[in-house]
Amino acid sequence: MRRALTALGALALVGAGVAWWLTAPDPLPEEELAALQGDAARGRTIFAAAGCASCHVAPDSPTTDAPVLAGGQRFVTQFGTFVAPNISPSPQGVGDWTDAQVMNAVLRGVSPEGRHYYPAFPWNAYNKADPQDVADLVAHLRTLPPSDAESLPHEVPFPFNIRRSLGGWKLLFMQTDWVIAGDLTPEQERGRYLVEALGHCGECHTPRNILGGLRTSAWLSGAPDPSGTGHNPNITPAGLQWSEADIVAMLQSGFTPDFDVVGGEMSEVVANTAQLTDEDRQAIAAYLKAVPPIESAAPEPGTGDSTAEE
Length: 310
Prior knowledge:
This protein folds into 2 domains: about 30-175, Cytochrome Bc1 Complex, Chain D, domain 2, CATH 1.10.760; about 185-290, Orthogonal Bundle (Cytochrome Bc1 Complex, Chain D, domain 2). Helices cover about 40% and strands about 5% of the residues. The chain is built from 13 helices and 4 strands. Strand 3 and strand 4 form a beta hairpin. The chain is mainly α. Helix 9 (about 185-200) crosses helix 13. The protein has a two-stranded antiparallel sheet with strand order 1-2. Strands 3-4 form a two-stranded antiparallel ribbon. Keywords: Heme, Iron, Metal-binding. It comes from Rubellimicrobium aerolatum.
């Protein structure tokens, strides 16, 4: 019995060691990222496409050409409340980080201290971004006004507050491949890059499993809002039956072909897509029309169905 207990104890230690190794953060080599030179002017477009200001400006802050990314917005989910951090170029933000550290946060979901970031920060989409684009994004961030606001902690209960467990989540649900593969035109491929990577549209428009992983088999078919109120619409051709021209017009002006205007979080998305080129908006529309049509799941009773959400 003593030998059996000793063997079990040894196996448990080995298993714990393997689990610790498997769940370790995996940043890209800093020297590899440091070799990239960012272009701040080009990074302005990447900043808009990635929607950084939508989450990281302080609540009720005015929209400006040079937003103050002080953080503080709260995002309520079934796993807890996540609070957007200060990512302005100040000591309280990312001012003291190296460019490579910011890039690893975006591309790998890893902090400068070597901790996993929660997937409420959409690194699981940004990880498909071109590292040069992210270098340009960082260069643009460095030009924005600093804020001395302290980042507030997330309000996440046990066991979700165990950061190391996010390494297991990454093993299960990290998506580094394109969802829509196959034979796409160059325009559709550009649209895929903007939708699946920079624009991270799937984070809101795709349903999730019980652990918060995206159900990519139902890609862009609509999902309950994480806050528990409202429903983000189906934007596959089965749900969004607009023409490409209609989609392009909405992404530029916010007006729909039904003589309505988008609101809520989608209005912030339009504020970003309006800064893209006509070609990029057309590419997004071409990609959305190429996505396989998937019928929407009916919203749960009492949740409503808002077509104004991102």
